[in-house]
Amino acid sequence: MDTNSNRNTYSVIKVSGNLDGHRSDELMNAVEKQIGPGNVDILVDFEKVDYISSMGIGTLISLYRDIREKNGQFILYGIRDSVKEIFDRTHLNKRLIICNTQDEAMDTLRTKHN
Amino acid sequence: MPAALHLSKKPSLLHFLVVDDNPTITRLIELQMTKAGYRCDTAANGENALEKINRTDFDLVISDISMPGMTGLELLKAIKQKKPQLQVLIITGHATIDNAVEALRLGAINFITKPIRFNEVFETINKILDLKSRKKAIRTASKYFLYESRHFAIPTRELYVSDLATYLTEPLEQISLVDPTCIISVTMAIYEALVNAVEHGNLELDSAVKFTDSSGMAAFKNLKENRLKDPLFASRKVTIKSIIDSSIARFTITDEGAGFDYTALVDPTSESRIDQTHGRGIFLIRQIFDEVRFNASGNSISLILRSKNPLITDPALNPAVVQKF
Questions:
Q1: What angle do CA B18, B20, B25 make, to 5 degrees?
Q2: ipTM, 2 decimals?
Q3: Residues from B in contact with A at Cβ < 8 Å
Q4: CATH topology of B3-139 equal to that of B147-324?
Q5: Residue B288: closest C-alpha in chain A
Q6: Which fold has domain A2-113?
Q7: Whole-angstrom Cα distance, residue B269 to residue A67?
Q8: Distance CA B293, CA B252 (A)
Q9: pLDDT tens by residue, B187-235
Q10: Which of B73, B180, B215, B218 is deepest in the core (most CB within 10 A)?
């Protein structure tokens, strides 16, 4: 799992493989490390995620909820069809903010803060 | 060792496509391949390569990773979508080694670095020949496949959920019961069932703990580790029975916990439940399998998958399987 911080305003976390129990744990820790004063916006790059388990879904909801409570944004982008189908079926697409590309995610971030 | 000594099988049976925007490289590879007895075509870019691939059944595409327009990785993705069985060998400079690793993940058979050493190319070709021969043997045997039955009873502390799920679903792909693009969904559904058997069944853990607050995940992990050390929980077994024939697969996963009231399962997609962090495992399983059954006490789940194109439709052809089901 790779993390890039940008000028202390937002962080991008790249996840790969199956977002199962083990990777969900890693994602939780990665987000926790990034969140701090002036940095509560998290962008998650899903381009290399093949599949997501129920634990992965729980983790995304939990992170979304926690970050929103801190007035931050939690945005996913680059989601593959196999994962998109799970989001559609579980209706997560109605809750989470999902963008096609990183540029679109950053535009959404700017809009949300304006 | 001269490259030609690597060749032991009929080279003329193989047809290659070399893709590179540098004509010197394509010419060099083409010359070497032709000299070794292979049939070889060339393409100057990814788009041109795809046109040729649509028209011809190649055995191997040898492609540079860095090309103007469609890159080698984009070409690889397009090939794996159109013709998943077609093998792709990626050529890369040292600077793009990360991309080469990504190429393997996307399904390339191998990558070689520049300058090209032809014995490495021939090693890959021999690997393809071996694969072709193995696949032919499996394809032939699969035509006469009747059924496969497995039975495990694994102590909780020795159950490696993710790898076991992969192992259990491997035969489905070999006998083409499941489309290769769907196999990951089936594997992950079995993974969900195994996690339930281990965590909720045998270890009696409550998933809701994970997301109660910021320390929930750590608390859950601690409790799990402690229970895995406690013989009362850790010695409980998960029993897995799988029986697969060419038209149906059934996996029964049973734990030694108290079971649960599966009739009380609620729809996790309802508006009031959508923000819940847990309670989607069975829902996801039901999205994938044609039929999901529980025993009365709820500590055993059966997952049934039917082939969309069953090879054997007449049960009389396979009485042993019918009896076992």
A1: 85
A2: 0.84
A3: 105, 161-162, 184-185, 188, 191-192, 195, 207, 210-211, 214, 217, 221, 268-269, 274-281, 283-284, 287
A4: no
A5: A86
A6: Transcription Regulator spoIIAA (3.30.750)
A7: 22
A8: 9
A9: 999 999 999 999 999 999 988 788 777 778 888 889 999 999 999 999 9
A10: B73
